[in-house]
Design goal:
Structural class: alpha+beta
Order of helices and strands: EEHEEHHEEHEEHEEHEEEHEEEEEE
Number of strands: 19
Largest sheet: 6 strands, antiparallel
Shape: flat
CATH class of one domain: Alpha Beta
Distance between the termini: 142 Å
Low-confidence stretches: 1-22, 24-37, 42-46, 81-91
CATH superfamily of one domain: Zinc/RING finger domain, C3HC4 (zinc finger)
Number of helices: 7
CATH topology of one domain: Herpes Virus-1
CATH architecture of one domain: 2-Layer Sandwich
Radius of gyration: 56 Å
Oligomer: single chain
Length: about 400
């Protein structure tokens, strides 16, 4: 048969005889569909429209046969734990032996449930440690540091350094020994020979003010006034921090003012508990640590003169590596020959200095310097004191 071309809405469809043969084969492969009584219509013209409608009249659909599943195998019966299951061998069957290892009983706890199961890798061993904390019933008081130190001393297992000597320096204002807390009285500053004051005790005194260089002015003036004023909290002398409320006479030590819950402000003012505002204040100061360089302004020349004028000195005066021992003296007839335009040479002057050795490099020794009189002129003597050698004495008419 020849190919027929149908036209529908400007579209061409090629209907070949091979396609008809294929459709006839498909019809034969469906056994359940009955043949339609209608006869096939012969093609009338070449320009017949195609509606894509099958010429078969479908009355029923083919029903697929259900596949019968094979019978289920009987369940396998495992032998109980700690035993080996043995299957008797038949002439046509394979003999199989199954051994089951005993399973350890797991201890169920809240911690084990949360942890993931641990994996065991080849060539590695695992050890599990269990920690039990026993809390005794009733009130338990932990041991203090002193009890722990005594216990370690009895055991003899701890190495402890030698105890630090006690600091006997005492503040002239609050009368407490040693350096105070950083957020409290703070460190001790030297005011005069064997006179010490806490930094905050001096800084928060009414008369004292601080310069930009860190010098505290009028500390001695505040000390003189404090010797006559009594603290409202501890009733001892030396109080210098007064309330800044007008006509209020309450005065405290710095440490006593903190204990009495006085209010300190950033502009270096303080109000007693009777006059402080209720609640918190924006300008309130609650931290008293001072990490900047602060020192007491004093007349060092007068201080040195007071040390020299004392006959019997219980203190050692030291400047760097120079230790002062004696100042000596000058008689009226010696004044003309025992001085120059820059220095005085008193007879009996003695001082020692630690300086580099003349014999060994990177080693120091002691040089004892003194002034003596010979033929009405000063004689300068230097005595070299070095361990392992005899004392070497050097003399000359000039200090150079």
């Amino acid at each position: 048969m020849k190919d027929i071309v149908f036209c529908s809405n400007n579209c061409f469809v090629l209907y070949s005889a091979a396609v008809q043969a294929k459709n006839s084969e498909n019809k034969e492969s469906v056994p359940c569909l009955p043949q339609s009584p209608m006869k096939e219509r012969p093609p009338k013209a070449f320009h017949q429209y195609s509606n894509n409608i099958s010429t078969l009249d479908v009355h029923c659909l083919p029903q697929l046969q259900e596949k019968v599943s094979p019978p289920s195998s009987p369940p396998i019966m495992f032998p109980p734990a700690f035993e080996a299951a043995k299957v008797e061998a038949k002439p046509d069957e394979l003999k199989v032996t199954v051994k089951l290892k005993p399973r350890l009983k797991a201890i169920h706890s809240s911690l084990d449930d949360c942890r993931p199961p641990s994996k065991k890798w080849k060539g590695m061993k695992w050890k599990k440690w269990s920690i039990q904390i026993v809390i005794p019933k009733g009130s338990f008081k932990p041991p203090c540091e002193e009890e722990i130190d005594e216990f370690l001393k009895k055991l003899g297992t701890a190495l402890k350094p030698d105890p630090v000597p006690k600091d006997y320096r005492k503040c002239c204002f609050c009368h407490e020994e040693g350096d105070g807390l950083t957020d409290g009285p703070a460190r001790l500053l030297n005011l005069d020979l064997d006179l010490w004051v806490h930094l905050n005790c001096a800084l928060w005194s009414t008369e004292v003010y601080e310069t930009q260089a860190g010098a505290l002015i009028n500390v001695e003036l505040a000390l003189r006034r404090g010797l006559q004023m009594k603290c409202m909290f501890c009733h001892k002398m030396g109080a210098t921090s007064g309330c800044h409320r007008l006509r209020c006479t309450n005065i405290y030590h710095f440490t006593c003012a903190i204990k009495a819950q006085c209010m300190f402000f950033k502009d270096k003012t303080m109000l007693c508990p009777m006059h402080k505002p209720k609640g918190t204040h924006e300008q309130e100061l609650s931290y008293f640590a001072v990490f900047r360089r602060v020192y007491v302004q004093r007349d060092e020349v007068r201080q040195i003169a007071s040390i020299v004028q004392r006959g019997e000195r219980d203190h050692t005066f030291r400047v760097g590596s120079l230790i002062f021992h004696a100042v000596g003296q000058l008689l009226p007839q010696q004044m003309q020959a025992f001085h120059s335009s820059k220095a005085l040479f008193p007879v009996g002057y003695e001082a020692s200095r630690l300086y580099w050795s003349m014999r060994y490099a990177n080693r120091r020794c002691r040089y004892l310097c003194s002034i003596e009189e010979k033929d009405g002129l000063p004689l300068f003597v230097i005595k070299v004191v070095e361990q392992g050698h005899e004392d070497l004495v050097l003399t000359d008419t000039t200090p150079k």
